[in-house]
Amino acid sequence: MKRAILLLSSILALVLLVPGAAAQEPGSDAAAQVTVTSLSLEPGIFFEGDTGIITIEITNNGFESVAIRRATMYDADISVLSSSYDTTTTVGAGNSMQFSFTVKADVLPGIYYPKFSLDFRDAGYLRYPVQLRVENDPLEISILDKPDTFGAGRKDRVDILVGNPRDNPVTGVVVHVSGEGIDATPSSYFIGNLNPDQAQRVSFNITPKQPSVLEFRVDYKNGVNSHATSVAVPIEFGVSKTEANPLLSNIVVDYQDGRYVLTGDIYNAGLEVANSVVLAAGGEAVPVDPYQSYVVGSLEPDDFSSFELTFTAENITEVPIVVSYRDVDGNPFEKTYTVSIPARTSGSTKEPGIALPIIGVIIASAAVIGGAIWYSWKKR
Amino acid sequence: MAGKIGELLLRPDAFFRRLVEEPENLKIPALIVIGGAIIYAVSAYLTSGLTFKIFGNVPEMASMAPILGIFGAVVAFFTFIILFWLIFSGAFYLISMAFSGSGEFKRTLQCSGYGLIPVIIGSLLSLLISLYYIPMIQVPVLTNIQDPAAIEAAIQQLMQDTAFSELRLITSIISIIFLIWSANLWIFGLKHARNLPLKQAAIAVFIPVVVYIIFILYMAVAGIPGMGGT
């Protein structure tokens, strides 16, 4: 008999220790059938300071309705911005109900457990801790490819890679390009959604007008929260190590028929092809036909071409020869070489034909000499 | 002196007849030849200046141009003396030996020297015409001397210049005309210096003179300046 009493007491003690032990009260059996069946956080992982929504779905798995007096969420660290559900309601047998709470994670990165509490009218309550992670890892921007140096007005391509190192997707990802005196095409690029550990390569054509700083800024959303990350690329002008390098040599300048005729050779001493090579006389020189300018066309590395220019010039001893060309991307380049030209004399052009006075001198000389010879033989 | 020159130019037979009666003296012929050599040197300096203008913008050549101009003038100076006096006199002397001419070489030198006065007058006239023409010559300019083809092309352009071509033609004509006058004097000079009949003296003179005229014409056509009297 003592053994039976001891067993009964133990069972009773166990029943008393069960959480939500409302079984002692009326309706506690029905409340025990209410469970949390779904939980969602938006965003899945918060940034420090992010605002988000926690949605909890409960389901009454029993055969009786359960009256709910209050549903709330609370935590010592996480701020709950929305109010509690204080209106008494009933969850029918087999029915579900959702509760949403707006929270703000003004906390340091870490893992937090705000608690969802559901108070039953006729029984005890249901406690359910929700795991909420706070991480501050932003999107990563990597410069994949860029030229060694930039040039004024020269278009160069810069490739970047935008990656998501977070464990939750981000949305609305847009890459913006900016910088003083920088013309970028496209000006921005919409990536959209970036899932965890996913990356997107983006290319931009950059045409700087001056030395500056090129900034790539990536705007994105983590839930309803806007975030941005950026990377800066200094734009410094210089000479590319491989660019085309046209050089002039074998220059001969002649003055013919009232104009200067300049002939020479143009070499490409660079490592890249020079396209659309055009030569023209600049400065105070006035180009004239037939070779106001000379189109060489394409010059491969180590290739050369002869050229000819015709121009007029007054009171100058040097003429700038402007060589304009383009690289494979169509970026315009221009180089100027100074060439000395012979000073024009006062006589300028000499019309063909010996001057009459000189012809007269020759004829007179011949006549005098003929006469002298004739006389010398006659008057010996 | 003017009377003597007038007699030399108009009555060379009488001039040289009287000259050979006097003792041989090369003083005056030498002065005449040196005067002609100086004119020849000045002409050569002016003409060589054109060539050096081509290289005026070549740094390696810029400092050398005046030196080379003076060098050309010196060469021209001695060329005149050697060619017009010594070589012509030597040729006259050697050819006249075939006609059994007599008389010292010194006497031939003396007569040849006097006979160069028309050539010197012609050189002076050529020099004056050169001073008129040279400023009108357009000289191509080279910026480097690394390419022989470019140098050749520049010199070719200079040779084809209208003013330069005319100058070469005029100086060649003047040289030939005055050389013929000198040849006339040399005939009478050689006749008396080597005691030759007039016909044989004429043959002895005309052989080297004709050869030189052919040379002048060839140079005028080929386009090498400085040998036609300027």
Overview of this protein structure:
The complex is a heterodimer of chains A (380) and B (230). Chain A is mainly beta. The longest helix of chain A is centred in the C-terminal third of the chain and has 23 residues. In chain A, the strands form seven sheets. Chain A has a four-stranded antiparallel sheet with strand order 1-3-7-5, with no helix packed on it. In chain A, strands 6-4-9-10 form a four-stranded antiparallel sheet, with no helix packed on it. Chain A has a four-stranded antiparallel sheet with strand order 12-13-17-15, with no helix packed on it. Chain A is 11% helix and 51% strand. About 4% of the residues of chain A have low confidence. By secondary structure, chain B is mainly α. In chain B, α2 packs across α9, α3 crosses α5 and α5 packs across α6. At the A-B interface, β20 and α3 of A face α2, α7, β1, α8 and α9 of B. β20 of chain A pairs antiparallel with β1 of chain B, so a sheet runs across the interface.
Topology:
The complex is a heterodimer of chains A (380) and B (230).
Chain A: H1 2-17, H2 28-31, E1 34-42, E2 45-46, E3 51-60, E4 66-74, E5 79-80, E6 89-91, E7 96-104, E8 110-112, E9 115-120, E10 125-129, E11 132-134, E12 140-145, E13 156-163, E14 170-178, E15 182-185, E16 188-194, E17 199-208, E18 212-222, E19 225-235, E20 246-256, E21 259-268, E22 274-281, E23 286-287, E24 293-299, E25 304-312, E26 318-326, E27 332-340, H3 356-378
Parallel strand pairs in A: 2-11
Antiparallel strand pairs in A: 1-3, 3-7, 4-6, 4-9, 5-7, 8-11, 9-10, 12-13, 13-17, 14-16, 14-18, 15-17, 18-19, 20-21, 21-25, 22-24, 22-26, 23-25, 26-27
Chain B: H1 2-10, H2 12-21, H3 27-54, H4 59-62, H5 65-98, H6 105-115, H7 117-133, E1 141-142, H8 148-159, H9 162-193, H10 198-222
Helix pairs in contact in B: 1-2, 2-9, 3-5, 3-6, 3-7, 5-6, 5-10, 6-9, 7-9, 9-10
